[in-house]
Amino acid sequence: MKTTDAILFYIGNHPQGACSGEVMTFVKENTSSFGKSARSILGRLVREGRIIKKGTLYYPPDSFKPPFVPFLDDSLKELYSSVKGAMPFANICIWHTDSLVPLMHDVPNFRMTLFGVESASVPFLADSLENMTDSLVLRESDNDIILRLASRRNLVVVGPMVSQAPTMDIVGVTVPSLEKILVDILCDNALRAMTGSQAYEIYSAAFDRFNVEKKKLLRYAGRRNRKQEVEKILKEIGS
Prior knowledge:
The chain is of the alpha/beta class. It has helices spanning about 5-10, 20-30, 35-45, 75-85, 120-130, 145-150, 180-185, 190-195, 200-210, 215-225, 225-235; strands at about 20, 50-55, 55-60, 95, 110-115, 135-140, 155-160, 165-170, 175. The protein has 2 domains: about 5-60, Arc Repressor Mutant, subunit A, CATH 1.10.10; about 75-235, no CATH class. It has 11 helices and 9 strands. It is globular and about 55 Å long.
């Protein structure tokens, strides 16, 4: 996560106000930047009006929308670290379907950890994961099995990731940006089954609650041949 995003995320989720010490602690724990550079960025964000300082506390403005940060717990961090140890030069992305919970009204009982990697590395990553987790490891192409088991047990699903997919770094872990997640739920059959008819609701919640870069969203949608579908949804929700 970039330092700016970390600061905006923390303050945006503390509308009652946050002191600089709390903000700096969060930045230290979630980025590689700390100290003078982070404090300088905090001051710049105040001058730009992107956050408000009253006394010793920092507040989000009324129109503020924080950056989206996917769900990432210690078990996911550890699994990602193990994978990178086995494949240090691979471009790997990890996320969990719990990341969709803030965007959904009716949350189905689907629990999946999803890995994205270059197509040629999918078999090796899937084989490596079988020795790293007790969860059932499947490939994205195992669609029927995923749909049959996703609501009954934890799954780890490995699939190909297109080049230039929008991702972000959180404490050394590569996770998808919100724009990538919004497109992927329209592409991957298991995710489509999970979200069902809630795609419009998810998009609406994303644009209402978080900062979404529309150009990035449409560019990635084009790379996954979903641009027209995304444009239709954006038109329907008025974004």
